[in-house]
Amino acid sequence: MIQASVEQLKDLELVQCLSQSAQDKLMSEVNLITFTVGQQMVLPEVIPGRILLMLQGRARLVGEDQGRVISLGKFEAGSVLGAASLMCGAGLENLIASDAVVAAAISDELWAEFYSSEPKFRNFCDAQLWASEIVVVLKNLQQQNAQARIPFLELFRLGLKNAGRVPLSNEAINGAQNEQRQVFLCSAWAGCTPGERLEPGTLPPESAPFPSRLISLPTALVDQILNAESRPTDESSSTNVSTATANDSDTNSSALVPSPSEALVPVPAEMMPVSRFNPD
Question: What is the pTM of this model?
Fold first, then answer.
């Protein structure tokens, strides 16, 4: 691993959450990977066997709307790719390189180990609101209203504005519901279905290696999506969107990436590992 990339990696907030011994272990086990423009970085409908920490370049989040492939936005250096799919136990992400990309890869097993043993790392992960979690909830809602022809990009923008992370506790769930927000599951652990609404007074079953992940949307927005025949209006709430989600917005900025050297060997998409963690 070239020294510049090592220093970039050490400066990432996620890495800073680790104890010194965990950082040392990360540096000894992490792999540096390059991706060429258009190369698949995270496969859809697959739980990845590695998490990518972007150091250079940009990646595009790809979605689908009424049979058409659409771009939902871009991730830039500092973004974490693959974690939403791994921690939700479902292949939620479809990510391709939109520039030449340099990323540090952490194995799913090391990620799970850090989540279990490193409190600050676990808190960091639990606080994130990943764009793909919003997508799976909105897709589920959209499918329940076959009469509506609402462009998904419009729903997604509303979701980014209004979605909020809900901690896995009765108090937090009841608090969100009392604020006229509906709570949704993003995980497939313990027999759950990503995108499913959580009924009042219920708590998802315990699961390992990761607990269920929850987000909320305003009830007024959910009702509009379910009942609308056209475009819903913005009932914007005061919910803060996390950095991980905000970074997914499309930008016009570009990143200059040095040519690959012997230390940076591109990895073909067919060599992308699949996680051993599976809810099935």
Answer: 0.86
